[in-house]
Give the backbone structure.
Amino acid sequence: MKRSRGFNTEAVHAGESSNRFADAVTVPVFQTSNFLMNDEKYSSPDNVNNVYTRLGNPTIGALVEKLNALCNASFGVFFSSGMGAISAVLGSFLKKEDSILFCRPIYGGTSALLDEFRHAGIRMDSFTPSSIDRITSLIDHTTRIIYTETLTNPSSQLVDIEKIATIAESHNILLVVDNTFLSPYNFTALDHGAHIEVHSLSKYINGHSDVVAGYACTNDQAVYERVRSMMTMIGSNGNPADAFLVMRGAKTLGLRMQAHNTNGEVIARFLSSSPVIKCVQHPSLVKDLPACYRNCPGYGGMIYLEFFREEDAMKFIRSAKLLTEATSLGGVESLVTMPSLTSHSSSARDDLTEAGISSSGVRLSLGVEDSEDLLKSISEVLSVL
Ligand SMILES: *Cc1c(COP(=O)(O)O)cnc(C)c1O
């Protein structure tokens, strides 16, 4: 189902009526205990997944229904973290001697996880947003998964997933897409050929930097059953209290993303005119966008920039009043980090350079503050560099 306009308004309400205890204001947390599973009452279709919270829970079920509506997905699984989702998805489909192709740069945690899979005998190769044409030559009979982010962390480059989906489809390979940076408000990956879409809910979807949680969705029932079963086996289930908070955060996803989109565009344009900054990356500055991203309402608040001098990068992140130096992203407050020291510090320097990340690179996660206030705060710092 393709949406004609950007946002699925019904998703704001989805899920809540399915919770027996929901009212208009709150969704109480309902933690089930161990029931006797051979009792007819608890093996009824309504209750069978809720007998024990690692398997399911009404509050989690209500959240998954809402997230599925946001992502145009038929099936979804809630996880303890974005990494919990990614490891369960990869673990569900990769066996010894299989191989995976992934797009670089990639979130540092995912990169570290891939290293573990490599040690366990999974083969891998990579491509970059500008070398998608290489993919076909990298595929062989062992290739099981192509893995990419829609907008890369930290370099904010769009990856043409429609083009990759065509290749994946013709070789019968699973396409897994991490859409955390764009959020389902701006883009829905399943509508453009991804088989599985994953999100760190800790970022835009919850939006308040007070929860760590994850989610994976699909329109393929067999894929769903496998991922859900992996989640229950490795125990990377999210908990109902976090599901409740994500549910509350997600109610304002649309409003928040409009502010993030505006700030991303306004600040990217402003930064790209500074003489101390070597380059600025944000999709709003790209002239020739891949076709699948042309109708996005915006591209969020994640900007990657590189200073000419490393000491300017350091001064910038330590001095801008409205930018808090902190890891994480996608919350209402603006944050700034140096990826080479934080989220991507586990990656080797050569790998970073090859992926276009430099030691004078800075990642901005713009919040929902007034654009004028952000402009003022940033221009004050730039003027003394
Ligand atoms: C943060 C992040 C993750 C990991 O999510 P957690 O909830 O921190 O485990 C995965 N992918 C991307 C793109 C992220 O930014």
Remarks:
- The two ends are 50 Å apart (CA to CA).
- The chain has two domains: 32-250, 253-382.
- The chain has a mean pLDDT of 90.
- Residues 81-83, 107, 109-110, 149, 153, 178, 180-181, 200, 202-203, 212, 214 surround pyridoxal-5'-phosphate (CB under 6 Å).
